[in-house]
Automatic annotation (TrEMBL):
PROSITE patterns, alphabetized: ADH_SHORT
UniProt keyword annotations, A-Z: Oxidoreductase
Keyword Oxidoreductase set for record: yes
Protein name: Glucose-1-dehydrogenase
Protein family membership: Belongs to the short-chain dehydrogenases/reductases (SDR) family.
UniProt xrefs under InterPro entries: NAD(P)-bd_dom_sf, Sc_DH/Rdtase_CS, SDR, SDR_fam
GO biological process: monocarboxylic acid metabolic process
Molecular functions (GO terms): oxidoreductase activity
Length: 279
């Protein structure tokens, strides 16, 4: 199945992020890719971060450039402090500043607790949680240095943390992943409280089941998809563009008074669907 085929309308032709500079981590596939392209479509210049898969990242860059905005690919492992520092400082050199940090990069290393190795635990925490901390910290330094530029945005900067429904839904067999996303929720909320007086908006987007490589086995056969849809009241698997559209809106001044919130984009997965017929 072609995971890039989207059924989601892309009505956001107005360049409402024109002049803003965005960085999206993990932007060469899945939700990150759709988000980087979505931000370019509405006028932002975009840095496409990736850790492996340069060709895919360059393809995302070309697609973004087709909107008449600037983009380049940057290889960096978000869990490595020096690489994140270099990535943001290069962006400030090339684009002048950063307005939107989308801390998206994430991965799963699933195992029942008795089989889970320390390496599996550590890797997921390193990328999903430590990586978001580093990206938020480096973006914040530049937001504070520059402050608000009213012609660009009402805020001094936006941090959007890619979380998951598993920041609140426990997930057996995925304790590393669920713990990392629970951590992301508190990282986001605490930074939102700390940084709001600086006019920096920190929020999160929490996707449910989105059709991407990370969860291919959950949707790539009719049986698996039917099973998955029992957990989705809206009865469709999400597309990466469902997330990209929300991130673009959240990054814009239409959402300027939204601070410290998680927007669930999950077709109702967090509504305890098991209770629709029981309880
Ligand atoms: C996970 C997916 C999963 C979805 C819903 C996401 O955060 O990465 O593998 O399908 O949550 O359970």
């Amino acid at each position: 199945m072609d995971t890039s085929a989207s059924t989601v309308p892309q009505p956001l032709a107005h360049p409402f992020l024109k002049g803003q500079k965005a960085l999206v981590t993990g932007a060469n596939s899945g939700i990150g890719k759709a988000t980087a392209i979505g931000l370019g479509r509405v006028g932002a210049d975009v840095v496409v971060n990736y850790v492996a898969g340069r060709d895919a990242a360059e393809e995302v860059v070309r697609e973004i450039e087709s909107f008449g905005v600037r983009a380049y690919a940057h290889e960096a492992d978000v869990s490595q402090e020096d690489q994140v520092v270099d990535m943001v400082s290069r962006m400030v050199k090339e684009f002048g500043t950063i307005d939107v940090m989308v801390a998206n990069a994430g991965l799963q290393r699933d195992a029942p607790i008795t089989d889970m190795t320390m390496a599996q635990w550590q890797k997921v925490l390193d990328v999903n949680l430590n990586g978001q901390f580093l990206c938020a910290r480096e973006a914040t330094k530049e937001f504070m240095r520059r402050g608000v530029v009213p012609e660009v945005s009402r805020s001094a900067g936006k941090i959007i943390c890619m979380s998951s429904v598993h920041q609140i839904i426990p997930w057996a067999g995925h304790v590393n992943y669920a713990s990392s996303k629970g951590g992301v929720q508190m990282l986001m909320a605490t930074l939102a409280q700390e940084l709001a007086p600086h006019r920096i908006r920190v929020n999160a987007v929490a996707p449910g089941a989105i059709r991407t490589p990370i969860n291919r086995s959950a949707w790539d056969t009719p049986e698996a998809e039917a099973e998955l849809l029992r957990l989705v009241p809206y009865r469709r698997v999400g597309d990466p563009d469902d997330i990209a559209n929300v991130v673009a809106a959240l990054a814009s001044d239409f959402f300027d008074y939204v601070v410290g919130t998680t927007i669930y984009v999950d077709g109702g997965m967090t509504l305890f669907p098991g209770f629709a017929t029981g309880g």
